[in-house]
Write a structure and sequence with these properties.
about 260 residues, alpha+beta, CNF1/YfiH-like putative cysteine hydrolases, 6-stranded mixed sheet, 4-stranded mixed sheet, 13 strands, about 25% helix
Length: about 260
């Protein structure tokens, strides 16, 4: 199956160097699809108000980039939870409410959607096990990354072999939060104060979600990196929920990050 040359996903140097040709991954941008208007052009969000056939075609293109049909693209109904599901060769298109997926089934493409939240892709190339997680502030706070690692370990992965990368997400300089938000984090761990910096707005702060997420990955005992790409200002490459809100637009698209074990 030939993939669409218009798709030019971003790759993680760490994942690419660690996995070689045994595992393929990509952090897809908003470019290379068929959607129009606010959703131009690779919107994969089934929860958006985009034309459904366009969203399905965009998803088909993503699956085809991995050499797979649309039916082999596994995603979940993301609810900002720490919950992770394991999928295998019996996958039939169901989208349970969760924010992480893991598998050891070759050819099954795991995808997570984002439009400011952090997409994390995981791989254990030695044991051929992969995972994907959607980590907004709630997911990061409540442990979706750690739970994805635990689900991979349950499939036979080794912690020392797991590598992960945080893809395009809203950066600290673009993420202003209110005092109640800050208090929630500091009540959990006063040391979290270092992830907040002063804002121009009194009582508010700028929150470095990628730094928190990356630190939690490293503290979980795996190798990890952050691509350092901010979704908010990059209108050409990324959808952004917060940007849409500030512009008072009626809806927004979602980009996808995906990973798959190559078939023998």
């Amino acid at each position: 199956m030939m993939h669409d040359p218009a798709l030019t996903p971003i790759e993680s140097p760490l994942l690419k160097a660690s996995c070689g040709n045994t595992i393929r991954h990509g952090y897809f941008t908003r470019q290379g699809g068929v959607s129009g208007g606010l959703y131009a052009s690779l919107n994969v969000g089934l929860g958006s108000n985009d034309v459904r056939r366009d969203v399905l075609e965009n998803r088909r293109r993503v699956a085809a980039w991995f050499g797979q049909p649309l039916e082999r693209l596994a995603t979940v109904n993301q609810v900002h939870s720490p919950d992770v599901v394991t999928v295998d060769e019996t996958y039939a298109g169901e989208r349970p409410s969760a924010d992480g997926l893991v598998t050891k089934t070759p050819g099954l493409v795991l995808g997570v959607l984002a439009a400011d939240c952090g997409p994390i892709l995981f791989a254990d190339p030695k044991n051929r096990i992969v995972g994907a997680a959607h980590a907004g502030w709630k997911g990061a706070f409540y442990g979706v990354a750690e739970n994805t690692i635990e689900a991979m370990l349950a499939l036979g992965a080794e912690r020392s072999e797991i590598v992960a990368c945080l893809g395009p997400s809203i950066a600290g300089k673009s993420y202003e939060v209110g005092p109640e938000f800050v208090d929630r984090f500091l009540s959990e761990n006063p040391d979290y104060r270092r992830f907040f910096s002063p804002s121009a707005k009194p009582g508010h702060a700028m929150f470095d979600l990628p730094a928190l997420t990356t630190e939690r990955l490293l503290k979980a005992g795996i190798r990890a990196e952050n691509l350092g790409l901010d979704t908010y200002p990059d209108t050409g490459r990324f959808f952004s929920y917060r940007r849409t809100t500030h512009l008072a637009e009626p809806d927004y698209g979602r980009q996808i990050s995906a990973i798959a074990i190559t078939e023998d």
